[in-house]
Amino acid sequence: MLFYGVHVHGHALIEDSIVLPKVPVRRDCQLKKCIIDRGCHLPDGSQIGNDPVADHKRFHVTASGITLVTRRMLGQDVSLLR
């Protein structure tokens, strides 16, 4: 499910995911079973939901394998969304 203001660039793949408003999904990103919080900026080539071990190091992964990504987890300024 993609909300308003989501721009999916070329060669990106999104499967079984929710991408909240104002998120650019950059070139060659692969998102699987994840929820991307509004305003997150995913760099080119981001791989989220494909490697649970790597995802656990940076993001919150539920017991059912859904990965939650927020601006804070990506090291991005959260004050810009207010």
Q: Describe the biggest sheet? A: 4 strands, mixed
What gyration radius follows from the Cα positions, in whole Å? 12 Å
Structural class: mainly beta
Q: Report the span from N to C terminus.
A: 24 Å
Q: In DSSP terms, counting alpha (H) and pi (I) runs of 4 or more, how many helices?
A: 1
Please provide the ordered H/E string of secondary-structure elements: EEEEEEEHEE
Fraction in helix: under 10%
Can you summarize this structure?
The protein has one helix at 52-58; strands spanning 7-8, 13-15, 18-19, 24-25, 30-32, 34-36, 47-48, 60-61, 67-69. The chain is mainly β and 82 residues long.
Protein described:
With 82 residues, the protein is mainly beta. The protein has one helix at residues 52-58; strands at 7-8, 13-15, 18-19, 24-25, 30-32, 34-36, 47-48, 60-61, 67-69. Strands 3-6-9-8 form a four-stranded mixed sheet, with helices on one face. A three-stranded parallel sheet has the order 2-5-7, with no helix packed on it. The chain is globular, with a radius of gyration of 12 Å. The chain starts with 6 loop residues before the first strand and ends in a 13-residue tail after the last strand.
Reconstruct the topology from this structure.
Blueprint: E1 7-8, E2 13-15, E3 18-19, E4 24-25, E5 30-32, E6 34-36, E7 47-48, H1 52-58, E8 60-61, E9 67-69
Parallel strand pairs: 1-4, 2-5, 3-6, 5-7, 6-9
Antiparallel strand pairs: 8-9
